[in-house]
Amino acid sequence: MATAEENRQVDPESRDGLQVLSRAASALDEIATAPGQLRLVDIGAQLGLAKSTARRLLVGLVDVGFAAVDSAGRYRLGDRLLGLSSADGAHLAAAVRPVIEAVADATGETVDVSVLRGDQMWFVDQIESTHRLRAVSAIGGRFPLLGTANGKAALAALDDAELDAVLARQSSDMARRLRDQISPVRAGGLAFDRDEHTAGISAAGIAGRLPGGHVVAVSVPAPTDRFTLREEVIVEALRAAAAAAVWESAAR
Predict the structure, then answer these.
(1) Tens digits of per-residue pLDDT, 16-40?
(2) Domains in the chain, please, with CATH?
(3) pTM of the model
(4) Start and end of every IclR-ED domain (predicted)?
C-alpha cells in the first residue's frame, strides 16, 4: 500500500502547484534582469508560455505585491518583494561589513558588496572612496555577470553543477564567453574588469559563500589609471578579504 508521502509525491495538484511556483520564480528573474522594460508578451515569450498563461501568472504576482506594472504595461519588481529583498540584503551586508571596512582602510578606494541573484549581481552595500574621482554604484542596482569583476568572481565561486545551471540559461555564445572568463579566476583566485563594463573604470573582486549558501562578492573599482598604479595593494587587500573567517570556505 502506498504511503501518504508517496501519494503526495504523485499528487497532480502538488505538481501543478510546484509548476506555478517555478514559473513565478522564472518570471521574477526575468523582470529583475530588465526592470521596467518587459511587457507581458516579452515575459511570456522568454518563458515559453501562452499569452493567457503568462497573463494569469503576472496578474497573480501583481495582486500579491511581488510585481508591479506601469501604465505602459511594463513590469518591475513589486514593493512587497523588494521589502523582503532589502531585509535580506541588509543582513548579508552586515555580515560582510567588517571585511569591506578592512579593504577600504587598506586601499582608500570604493569597496562594493554584491550578491548573486539569478543572472545578475545585486549591490547591497558600499564604502565610498574619499578621492574626488571615484567609482560609485547605487545600492540596489544590478550588474551583469559578463565583463564585471564581481560577476566573474561569483560565477567562479559556484560548483560545476551550479555553474552549468546558470550557463544553461544563456545563449550559446554568452555561455562560452562566461566560461572563458571564469577559468582564469578559478586559477588565480581573483577576478578583474579592465575597462570592460565601464570605460575608464577597472576593478578587482573576490567571492565566497556566507553561511546559508549566499554567494557574495567583494570588489574594488577605481579609475583605471589609479587602479593600475595601486593594483598590488588592491590585490593584497582582496586576498586578505578572501581569507576572512566570515566565509563558509575561502573564495576561489
Answers:
(1) 677 888 888 888 888 877 778 889 9
(2) 4-77 (1.10.10.10), 82-242 (3.30.450.40)
(3) 0.68
(4) 80-252
